[in-house]
Amino acid sequence: MAATLSKSERLCGKKAIAELMEHGKGGVAGCLRYKFLKAGEADVSRILVSVPKRHFKRAVKRNLLKRRIRESYRLQKDLLPAPVDIAFLYLDREVLPYEAIYAAVTAALTAVASKTE
Length: 117
Description:
21% strand
């Protein structure tokens, strides 16, 4: 599988997001809170990334963190055995280096993989 992140792999739509937030299971891995839900008939995993405006007033910092989370996911998405919808919510109040975010995404994806099998 190619390590890309296409439009079809982005979670969008109010119904899908509400379903994930309401019925999804979750946990905390490092600087991230994650929620996941097995995808119904979808053939790819979909991702949602959120960084709170409350902690990062400048859009530049929020966008930087979102890019780091998406890139970490893109490189490791083959850790997931089956298609799932997954949301990553950034918790920390400071901008962490890429390595810390990468480690948190790794921990989250391995936890999701163990819970979906």
